[in-house]
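ARCHIVE CARD
CATEGORY: sequence design from structure
SOURCE FIELD: tokenized fold
FIELD CONTENT:
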């Protein structure tokens, strides 16, 4: 099995010495966690704690002790701190924080207010868990696609607002980044964003790339082609893999077939290779279908009690010979 050699030795030069030291890839492993269930019900602290604890005890693998969030705000509130924060404190789960910036100026103001409130309310018990802050998620991609997103200058403004908000706080040295698709930065105008961040997040889903060969047999090529292009675009900024996965069920997209068997192949080929390289990774996702049925469903676990239902596929990593 071939692995992309450029994943080795990712550079870690950031905008400041502190950010450079903390932005480097260190082999973090975690999952993406939404703020609500499929039925739109907000996740409460107990829900997050249940998920975080389950992630720490997965058969066949270990070390999944980090959570990537998309928002600082508790679902269906104006700017109340998301209950994932006290859940992370109680479970000793590290956090890649996310601020949603495609909802307009007031939404950005609310996100920053919640971030400041979390620092004030929870102190070092919270701030010591934060491994990074993501300002936005796929905003440039959605903006270019005519969806609700933001352009590069607006995104840069948001990034600088967040930097100002954490200046003089225990989060001042935490690396700030942005998550998007690699092709968003093929647009030269968008590349200006990279100059204002400490790390770049890569979201890669070969399953959706139906304009190219995207069967499970081509998934390795599709994924690493996108990741390597992102690494090249990032220059001396480290790249984290912030989202990837393969669905266990759902429609066939191009040549990509959703199934537990293919999800297992993708885990072995992509998750295991990234783990071996020490790349910071947040998988999508632990459980997607709870209080509803996702289609496609990228969850490792099906609907039901996470401590009762079985994983849909094997999570062990079989040793491979690099060639």
């Amino acid at each position: 099995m071939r692995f992309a050699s450029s994943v080795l030795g990712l550079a870690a030069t950031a905008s400041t010495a502190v950010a450079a030291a903390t932005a480097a890839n260190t082999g973090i492993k975690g999952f993406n966690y939404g703020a609500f269930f499929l039925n739109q019900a907000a996740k409460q602290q107990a829900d997050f704690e249940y998920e975080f604890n389950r992630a720490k005890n997965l058969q066949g693998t270990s070390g999944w002790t980090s959570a990537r969030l998309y928002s600082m705000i508790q679902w269906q509130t104006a700017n109340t701190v998301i209950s994932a924060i006290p859940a992370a404190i109680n479970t000793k789960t590290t956090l890649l924080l996310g601020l949603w910036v495609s909802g307009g100026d007031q939404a950005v103001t609310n996100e920053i207010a919640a971030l400041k409130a979390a620092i004030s309310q929870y102190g070092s018990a919270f701030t010591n868990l934060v491994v990074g802050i993501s300002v936005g998620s796929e905003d440039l991609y959605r903006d270019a696609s005519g969806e609700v997103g933001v352009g590069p200058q607006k995104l840069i403004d948001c990034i600088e607002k967040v930097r100002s908000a954490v200046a003089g706080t225990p989060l001042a040295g935490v690396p700030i980044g942005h998550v998007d698709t690699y092709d968003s930065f093929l647009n030269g105008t968008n590349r200006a964003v990279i100059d204002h961040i400490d790390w770049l997040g890569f979201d890669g889903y070969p399953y959706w790339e139906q304009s190219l060969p995207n069967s499970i047999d081509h998934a390795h090529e599709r994924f690493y082609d996108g990741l390597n292009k992102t690494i090249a675009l990032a220059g001396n900024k480290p790249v984290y893999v912030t989202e990837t996965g393969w669905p266990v069920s759902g429609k066939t997209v191009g040549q990509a077939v959703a199934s537990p068997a293919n999800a297992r192949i993708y885990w072995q080929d992509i998750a295991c290779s990234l783990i071996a390289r020490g790349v910071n990774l947040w998988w999508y996702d632990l459980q997607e279908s709870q209080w509803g049925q996702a289609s496609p469903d990228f969850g490792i676990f099906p609907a039901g009690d996470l401590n009762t239902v079985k994983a849909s596929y094997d999570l062990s990593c079989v040793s491979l010979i690099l060639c």
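CARD ANNOTATION: The beta strands are 29-33, 66-69, 94-99, 130-137, 176-180, 199-203, 239-243, 281-283. Residues 20 and 34 are 28 Å apart (CA to CA).
SHELF: design records, drawer C
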